[in-house]
Amino acid sequence: MTYKDQEDISDVKAMVEVYQEIAATRMQVVKLAILGARQYYESLALLVREVRPWLRTQAQKKKTAEKPTKTALFFSANTGLYGDIIEKVGRDFLKYVAEEESEAAVIGLVGKRMMESVHTSYPITYISCDDAHPSKEDILSIITYAQQFDHVEVFYGRFVNLISQIPYRNILSGEEAVSEAVGKDWKKTSFYYLFEPNTNEITSVVEKEIFASVIEQILHESNFSKFASRMIHLDQALQNIDERLFGMKLEQRRLMRRQENKKQLSRLSGRMLWHT
Q1: CATH no. for residue 160?
Q2: Number of folded domains in the chain?
Q3: Which of 7, 24, 79, 123 has the fewest CB atoms inside 10 Å of its own CB, making it the most exposed?
Q4: C-alpha to C-alpha distance for 25 and 224, rounded to whole angstroms
Q5: Can you give the residue range of the structural domain that contains 156?
């Protein structure tokens, strides 16, 4: 191994350390906010899951014969170096969409490339979104898409601890729960909740504020798990680089010893010839 090879690997190590530092900084910024608000937003998600179908039923009484519309959202990533969490979530998403009569949307370029590589036969909507700093426009495009549907399921990575990120599936509507409560003809029921001051105002709050807030929190949860996964992935990469550099240094020392031995042999041979 040449000195240039060592320099190249050292440069890679420095770059990986920078990426790791960036990931750690971003994690620290959002960690307390995400974990502290998780229980609150999970409660909001339960509220949306329970109430939203009833509100949409009241708003669409003339369309009771229509089948509820469904979509699945896969929160992937725009860049790489996130370990295998994106791939795991993507597999769950693909399995669900293949088994269900559901629309599908993928958020992020990594997920888009993943879907294109498996050549899916069903149409998929692709939505761009920045990993580190999603803009208001990014978030609004996701919310606007999801609000079109009665039944919304989301697939994303969930932070458990620094070394564990798991694929997670969350349901943001409750047609099944409502159906079990009132039977197959639940859409013909006039109401089972009393909404005050009126249905339109409550619908506006649930659809525009609560539902949107839950979607935004899920986006941040997804990004948090990705950066945690990146930390582990980059730490493993640094260990591999250090092992590689250590091996190169050992090889370089062996080479130097062999060269020094050759020089000593040459000097000894010269002395022997001189004395003879």
Answers
A1: 3.40.1380.10
A2: 1
A3: 123
A4: 11
A5: 41-229
Using left for φ > 0, alpha for ψ between -120 and 50, and beta otherwise, residue 81 falls in: left
β-pairing, 70-75 vs 151-161, is parallel
- What percentage of the chain carries pLDDT values higher than 90? 17
pLDDT in tens, 224-276: 888 888 888 777 777 777 777 777 777 777 777 777 767 766 666 655 555 55
In a domain, 243, yes or no: no
Buried b (16+ CB within 10 A) or exposed e, 105-115: bbbbbbbbebb
Instruction: Tell me how far apart the alpha carbons of residues 161 and 148 are, in angstroms, rounded to a whole number.
Output: 34
Report residue 261 as tokens. Answer: 């031995």
Q: Is residue 246 part of a domain?
A: no
